[in-house]
Amino acid sequence: MRSLLFAALLMALAVPTEAWGSDGYRYSLPGDWRWPTTTQFKWFKHYIHGEVHLKTDSEYAPYTYSTRTNTPQPAMMVFPTCVRDIQKSLRFARWHGMRVSVLSTGHHMDVRNIADNAVHIVMTEFNEKVIFDFGDEKHIRVGPGQTFGEISEYVKAETNEAYAIATGGDSTVGPYGWATGGGHGYLSRMHGLGADLLVEMKVVLASGIVVTANEYHHPELFRSLRGSGGSAYGITVSMTFRLNPTPQKVTSFLGVFFPQGEEHQTAIMQAYHNFISVAPKEAGGYYLTLGAIPGNPVFMVTWCYGDNCNEHISKVSGLPGCVPGLLPGNCQQNNTNTYYSLLDSLSPPPGGNQYSVSNSVSGEDALALINATTAWVTKAETMPFTKFCTQSSVLGGAMKTMDPTGDLTSISPAMRNADIQVTCVSSWAEEATVEQKQQIVADMDSWGETVLRPLGTGWVYWNEPQHNFPSNDWKERYWGSMENYNRLLGVKRVYDPFNAITCYHCVGWNFADSVDPAVCPEQDCTCSNNPSGACN
Predict the structure, then answer these.
(1) What is the model's pTM?
(2) Tens of pLDDT along 426-478?
(3) Which long-range contacts (CB under 8 A, 24 or more apart) does 10-18 make?
(4) Please, how many CA atoms are within 13 Å of residue 352, restricted to the half-sphere of its CB?
(5) How far is CA 389 from the centre of its chain?
């Protein structure tokens, strides 16, 4: 409590009276008296070291991972190269009453890291990578502009494969969004979530003040950053993670199956259920069902670290019907001496026109979950889109025993105590009409609420979220309870009292005493913060 009071005093001293919020928290829009003139925008380009792209510049090219809607159009894109650039950008936004959006690597499925009419801060130039000893541990400090593909290669080379960093499910994921949303992957059942492995963060607050947050300095801010998702409290310029010794023996199975009838389909489901329901913390897997492809193939990958793995992997490696030759190492049990070979064998899925819904379940409920998602994926559709569901068996294990009181991280107990996270995705062709997109989103929302949600905890993964919540219960669905959300909101009000840094369904998105910050042009809406989820 004393640390929060001290932080509040710092904020009060740092933020001038003409800052955000003097007009009832309403962000300025083009045509308002506070909106920058063309001359002021151009002047700012020469005020910082990094690049600035205005809408009139040929380099202006906002990026989004999911192209479900038109790409949001920020007022300008700032590519800072140092903390001072960020501070100047925040000062410019504060003076003109503009909202601030922050993008690290851009890998987000719901277009939350970019906003219309914003000062859009792109952190790709913050790409530090430094490994150092901390007592008897090894840590790595990284910038938010790095991807895990780059970071893993660096750790592999610098430690001669002796250490590994826990990563997301593919190489294009970045450390900031992954860890602050919870963060799971191939090592999370052994060593914990990304939020658990964070040991320190350096953050530029909306006021321009730079703070270092860890368990001893600004502990409530640190707890909030470890699981609340999105850039809601400040702009992170570096993150420090704990490294772990690399698993030196890996047994895995990679298989692509084309089910030959209902009996074969059931056998595949049952085998995976038998594997994951009793899997030790050293084992995990993914079960992916693809729809709208002839044969509705099933993609399965399982792994286990250590010496006692054959009995676990054999539950799936002996399945009939696997089609060899489609992938390297397909249809066989693979034994390697390094964890890195497992990473190299898996390819990331592409972005595109996507909409998702998610949930979590225990291992015992895996079979019911796979049955329901398979039925949905294989259902014939008349509209031009494909469907797939991924059962990610990357929760549970050691992470269940970490942070039992919830005082170190802010993730939902439903994530902490589950074994499987499921994400179902629809992906449609470029020629899909606006009406078809809207219908697909509505159908996904309905199926997610009426079928998928009752099968599990009702939790929604911040990093693979649905856009709409028919019951408007997004706070409880992300963070488990209003008690947890209100605790996060209290920290937000201390460190960003004028809600300058905002995104859709971030903590503080709908301050009770603020005008809805989800500003969106009336014409050609991009839906970056629009409840409909899809428009032209």
Answers:
(1) 0.90
(2) 887 777 777 787 788 888 888 899 999 999 999 999 888 888 888 889 999 99
(3) 10/207, 10/209, 11/205, 11/207, 11/209, 11/494, 11/495, 11/497, 14/205, 14/207, 14/208, 14/209, 15/94, 15/206, 15/207, 15/497, 15/498, 16/94, 18/95
(4) 14
(5) 17
